[in-house]
Design goal:
heterodimer, A: mainly alpha, 9 helices, B: alpha/beta, Rossmann fold, 6-stranded mixed beta sheet, 4-stranded antiparallel beta sheet, 10 strands
């Protein structure tokens, strides 16, 4: 699997996938729907799928001395790697906003989602949805990806809208609390996001392997 | 000794049907796989390699069914589909650097030898190569890991006559070392020059899979070349 991941990183990946990890820094922006940073990271991953398709990567990979399932596992491993890099960068920004920058006026006046553990949980949810909707959808044909990507766009924007609206619901203000106030609730949302991410990724990977086994290249 | 056994291979598409294709490939022999465009050569080869899922039939390599033994079988096979058409913007050096990590039997000396023989520049990108040079690059990758069986789809198409001759010489050398080769082509004269066996496919059905001499004796007319024989067979089929 290490070899497949290296192949993904050196031959199949678009430079934009790496560059778009930097969108995690959007979490610094006050008055911005920072959860969109997760969407932009996924957009960077989409660029790799587009580049790989143009480069006939799937045929090359399928001819390597590995089972067909490893072609799918390689793509998932690459996506998870990029997603975790973006998550770690977001977590660092979040920690800064929760500590050193917690009293900054720009953040205190923020009407939108704050960078806190709940935000990180929603980020994991979006990454999980990308893996389940887009990556799995791509392996239905190994070629077409427009429909799965449109489906992912719609679902991810709905998640962003719900996440942004949640803390305006009476009684749920704690979801958007500053600093370490209500850290327990927010940590629970982060844990739930992480669990959903792992489940969506593992289940969709298995499903994608089954789908790809039936594809004629 | 057989290195590959193909039995009853069928593949159905809405507009094409590959029916009951069976043949063997033996160590140290070159098999020419001939047939007109669209006869089913590429579908057969892709089915043999798992790129296409056969509707029915089985493929075994080195005494093992391909299905379920891909890890054991694939490193022992070299495959090339005409010109390299992947990673057009990557340097050859980078493509090779990744490819070689997948093959424990990668032969650096063989790679260097082929690189020189084919006059390929590792610093170039596939998009900078002519079609003929792309074919050579694909062959370079297929030949550099000491494959015991080479499956080559149209390897000589797009090559100039000099390069084709060079390639045929390479095939003969590999055969002498015990490598089995299956190559599909519609350039019948290439088969005539180097093949030991001929598999002839017509409209998705294998019309014959025989040693070349036997094929000529059964289907040919005295004084005819193999190409003339095959063209005559195709015409008679079309007239029927």
């Amino acid at each position: 699997m290490r070899k497949m991941l290296k192949k993904e990183m050196t031959l199949s990946a678009s430079f934009l996938s790496y560059l778009f990890i930097a969108f995690a820094l959007l979490a610094f922006c006050p008055g911005y729907p920072i959860l969109l940073s997760a969407f932009f990271v996924c957009l960077g991953l989409f660029q790799s799928f587009q580049y790989a398709r143009e480069a006939n990567d799937i045929v090359y990979s399928s001819l390597l001395p590995v089972p067909k399932a490893d072609v799918v596992r390689g793509k998932y491993a690459f996506c998870v790697l990029i997603e975790l890099c973006a998550f770690i960068l977001s977590a660092i920004v979040t920690l800064l906003r929760m500590t050193a920058l917690s009293e900054a006026a720009a953040y205190r006046a923020n009407a939108l989602m704050n960078a806190n553990p709940a935000f990180l949980g929603f980020m994991m949810l979006i990454f999980g949805l990308f893996n389940a909707i887009f990556v799995r959808g791509f392996f239905r044909t190994g070629y077409y990806f427009a429909k799965p990507f449109v489906a992912f766009i719609i679902v991810s924007f709905v998640v962003v809208l719900i996440a942004e609206a949640l803390h305006h619901v009476p009684g749920l203000e704690a979801v958007n609390a500053f600093g370490f106030e209500h850290a327990g609730l927010q940590a629970a949302i982060l844990a739930a996001g992480a669990v959903v991410f792992v489940l969506l990724t593992l289940v969709s990977e298995k499903s994608a392997i089954r789908l790809f086994e039936k594809v004629d290249l | 000794m057989n290195v590959a056994e193909i039995r009853g291979l069928c593949k159905e598409y809405p507009s094409f049907r590959l029916s009951d294709v069976s043949f063997d490939l033996a160590t140290g022999r070159i098999a020419g796989f001939i047939g007109r465009n669209g006869a089913g050569k590429t579908t057969t080869i892709k089915s043999m390699l798992g790129l296409v899922r056969p509707t029915s039939g089985s493929v075994s390599y080195f005494g093992m069914p391909f299905a379920g033994n891909e890890n054991a079988v694939k490193p022992r096979i070299g495959y090339s589909t005409g010109a390299v058409n992947y990673y057009p913007k990557k340097r050859i050096r980078d493509i090779v650097a990744v490819t070689r990590t997948f093959y424990p039997s990668w032969d650096e000396a063989a790679y260097d030898e082929m690189l020189e023989l084919f006059r390929l520049d590792e610093e170039k990108r596939p998009c900078e190569l002519s079609d003929g040079m792309k074919v050579k690059l694909n062959l370079l990758l297929a030949l550099s890991h000491r494959a015991e069986l080479l499956i080559l789809d149209e390897p000589t198409s797009g090559l100039d006559p000099f390069s084709r001759e060079e390639l045929i010489d390479v095939f003969k050398k590999l055969r002498d070392r015990g490598t089995a080769i299956l190559f599909s082509t519609h350039i019948i004269s290439d088969v005539e020059k180097c093949a030991d066996d001929v598999a002839y496919i017509r409209q998705g059905r294998l019309a014959a899979a025989l040693p070349k001499e036997e094929f000529t004796a059964r289907f040919g007319i005295e004084g005819e070349t193999l190409e003339e024989t095959v063209v005559r067979l195709e015409r008679s089929e079309a007239d029927a």
